[in-house]
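User: Fold this, then the next.

Assistant: Folding the first:
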Amino acid sequence: MRLILLGPPGCGKGTQAKTLCRDVSAEHVGTGDLLRDAIRRETPAGIEARREVEAGHLVPDEVVNLLISERFSRQDRPSRFVMDGYPRTLPQAHAFDKILTGVGLALNGVVMMEVRDEVIVQRVSGRWSCPKFGCKATYHIDSNPPARPGICSDCGTGLVQRADDAPATVRERLVIYHRDTEPLVPHYEKAGILIRVNGEGDIGAVGDAIRRSLAARGLL
């Protein structure tokens, strides 16, 4: 299984990717964790990324692509994975296609989690996450609360709420998503690997829908 999870910010990609990877013994590949690991290890991509982060800039496509290339160039590269947060743009998608071709891997599917903007805004205002590297569990005060308020159920770390989860900021992020990421839909649709899933149910229902769709394609 080699998948990408696509969808607007706050649609639950991280939660679904983590659960799916656990169930099928695949690696959850998130750009945030790769970025922090590369900076810590001082890889070429990590050095470039640190410069951008310390300058207060967004990490540009070419550096993110280098992060992904470094991960898939290693001997321990995953042969089964779920991508979460990458690619975000068409240039990144084209770069990822080349990276995978270069190591003899190919995507099996791209799951598009479809959620309306207003639903996203409502969801995100109650979202909290675990800041611990290697965990990154996410919660919602209504639909997926932790066992103890404010504490990660997986590792016991205190939960945090991202500053950019304010409604106005979420709407700005959705504008960027529609502009930059939605063009990936026809790209993967043309490749014949796009799988559309209604992402507006609860976590369990959406997870079940993803698994049914993957099973129908022979991917589970």
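Now the next one, as you asked:
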Amino acid sequence: ERTELMRTRLLDATIECLAESGYGRMSTNDVVRRARVSRGALAHHFPTKADLVTAAAERLVERRGAEFRARFEAIAPERRTPERALEVLWSFYDDPSGLALIELTVVARTYPELTPVLVKMGDQIAAVTAEMVLAYFPSLASVPFVEEALRAVHALFAGLALSSMAGPQATGDAQAVREFLNILAINMLASGESLASTERSPS
């Protein structure tokens, strides 16, 4: 239990440092200070920075997946609208932990050891998204390529979160894109309901 607690402290401190400073500027000294442990403890559990960050990324993927599911499940039935669902999707990226994942995605070009973790992240989030959205909006199951559309939304939101780091103007542009996406989602849901109604109609 002590070993697991120590690892958790180190990994959580690493995630906070990634969100605050980015991979390039983050040092293991930052992690040690934030976790309030010795450098020997860090070296014992994670001999290299790459080992530490890879483990932190895995923890972040698992944690974010659980949070993502919980946010969807917390939506009251009367508030289960396309706009609200997209707000939950956006919240996955619009906070420090989401920015940390984007940071890791960018640096994976230089540090290929991070790539397997980030590929798994994409698959996990896509699976949870499809499960939650189709549970709340079952008529969308009739819409062709709905899972691909949800993956496209995630890719778009990741890009918007990345561009929003540029400043207020980029943030305003992101809001406009999200409003346009709401319109597309409403039309997509209406299309799904129409298809479902047609399938239920007697021939």
